[in-house]
């Protein structure tokens, strides 16, 4: 008998029919002799509409009240799923995050889990119940309701799997697993059988958001192996785990794309200590999330600093930097929208050379200009024109041998 933690995301529980579908799937796993903990998200769209309601009644709702409000989304799903299970004769009990023993710090709307005491969960399991837990929520030591940040149900599942030492953790979603590239843009993309935590994190931060990044970090820290798979079929998914020697043989695991970026160049920046600190403190204080910072060497005592950020924040940049323009900190700011960030990711890069040259070659052959380059140990990212982004993705995907080979139509000769 295995103890399995399953998580079903918003789309998988997006209607009452789908909740009934999840109930049937859970019942089948239980009938096969397993103990089950099921973590669910709010039905798709519910968290967003709750946020909209809040904005309709208040210009600045407090984070505490937002948490009280948002936690109702998941609470609706747990009760409905428990009822659907009862209806097909499966004993089940629904628990809020607090009832499941999830204790967090007091940072409302993005609380961190501080510990989990799964006593109640254990005793319900021992009684033979399927235990259904509201994702995305917890409670402070003082009994205040908290939430774990958008996408936080993933974290609930991973953390619960770690705390209760589950044999298996399965993240059910609306895609078949983690792909070498977004299959909507690259038809030759393949589902990966396995991926390392670090690759998954890089892919997530580079636009392939299958899971909340924090939950993957948590899984890495506590060594929770999990599978990402679809709730709409029975196909095996992608296993996310600690890297193995054989995983390093693959140079590039996947290609991901982040669209809707803007490129900001701050020109005429003096080359002396404290200037970058002043500029980026100003940006950070305005809550602007910058990415991919590049500073050139200075030839005449001043230099340029270029960075990217989401297009929606581009307008704010000029406003925030206006006061320092034409001063001893910076002369001018040039903002260009319509760019995208393409990343190739793979732990094999640590031990293989020539990956950058290969990527640049593929982009050259496709006639795509590279505007910025940045690298990490397991990633090479370039900023390119957004209008060529899909072409670039396809070119990189093919160049690194990621394209699926069509299945043979007849068996090979013996
Ligand atoms: N319902 C929450 C959200 O939409 C948490 C989750 O779905 O994981 O962010
Ligand atoms: Mg989600």
Description:
The chain has 414 residues and is α/β, with parallel strands linked by helices. It has a domain at 3-174: Carbamate kinase. The protein is 33% helix and 27% strand. The chain contains 11 helices and 18 strands. The strands form 3 sheets. An 8-stranded mixed sheet has the order 3-6-2-1-9-11-12-10, sandwiched between helices. The chain has a 6-stranded antiparallel sheet with strand order 14-15-13-16-18-17. A hairpin with a 4-residue loop joins strand 7 and strand 8. Helix 2 runs antiparallel to helix 3, helix 5 (153-163) packs parallel to helix 7 and helix 10 crosses helix 11 (389-399). The longest helix is centred in the N-terminal third of the chain and has 25 residues, at 63-87. The model has no long low-confidence stretch (mean pLDDT 94). The structure holds aspartic acid and magnesium ion. Aspartic acid binds at residues 10, 41-42, 47, 73, 135-136, 150-154.
């Amino acid at each position: 008998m295995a103890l399995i933690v399953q998580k079903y995301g918003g789309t998988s529980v997006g209607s009452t029919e789908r909740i009934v579908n999840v109930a049937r799937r859970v019942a089948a796993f239980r009938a096969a002799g397993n103990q089950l903990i099921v973590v669910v998200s709010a039905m798709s769209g519910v968290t967003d509409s709750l946020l909209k309601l809040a904005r309709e009644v208040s210009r600045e709702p407090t984070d505490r009240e937002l948490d009280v409000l948002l936690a109702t989304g998941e609470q609706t799903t747990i009760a409905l799923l428990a009822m659907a299970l009862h209806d097909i004769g499966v004993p089940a009990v629904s628990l809020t995050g607090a009832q499941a023993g999830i204790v967090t710090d007091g940072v409302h709307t993005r609380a961190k889990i501080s510990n989990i005491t799964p006593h109640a969960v254990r005793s319900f399991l021992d009684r033979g119940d399927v235990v259904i837990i509201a994702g995305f929520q917890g409670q402070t030591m003082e009994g205040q309701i908290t939430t774990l940040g958008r996408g936080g149900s993933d974290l609930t599942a991973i953390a619960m799997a770690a705390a209760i030492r589950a044999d298996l953790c399965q993240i059910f979603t609306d895609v078949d697993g983690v792909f070498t590239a977004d299959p909507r843009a690259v038809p030759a993309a393949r589902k990966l059988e396995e991926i390392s935590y670090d690759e998954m994190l890089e892919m997530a931060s580079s636009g392939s958001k299958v899971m909340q990044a924090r939950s993957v970090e948590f899984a890495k820290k506590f060594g929770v192996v999990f599978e990402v798979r679809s709730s709409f079929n029975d196909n095996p998914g992608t296993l996310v785990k600690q890297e193995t020697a054989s995983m390093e043989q693959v140079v590039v695991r996947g290609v991901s794309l982040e669209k809707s970026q803007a490129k900001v160049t701050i020109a005429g920046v003096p080359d002396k200590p404290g200037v970058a600190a002043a500029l980026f403190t100003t940006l950070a204080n305005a809550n602007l999330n910058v990415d991919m910072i590049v500073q050139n060497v200075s030839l005449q005592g001043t230099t340029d600093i270029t960075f990217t950020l989401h297009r929606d924040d581009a307008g704010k940049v000029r406003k925030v930097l206006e006061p320092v323009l034409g001063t001893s900190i910076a002369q001018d700011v040039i903002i260009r929208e319509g760019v995208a960030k393409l990343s190739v990711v793979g732990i094999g890069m640590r031990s293989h050379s020539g990956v950058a040259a290969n990527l640049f070659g593929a982009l050259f052959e496709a006639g795509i200009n590279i505007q910025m380059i940045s690298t990490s140990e397991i990633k090479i990212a370039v900023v390119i024109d957004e209008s060529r982004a899909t072409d670039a993705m396809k070119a990189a995907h093919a160049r690194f041998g990621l394209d699926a080979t069509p299945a043979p139509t007849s068996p090979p000769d013996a």
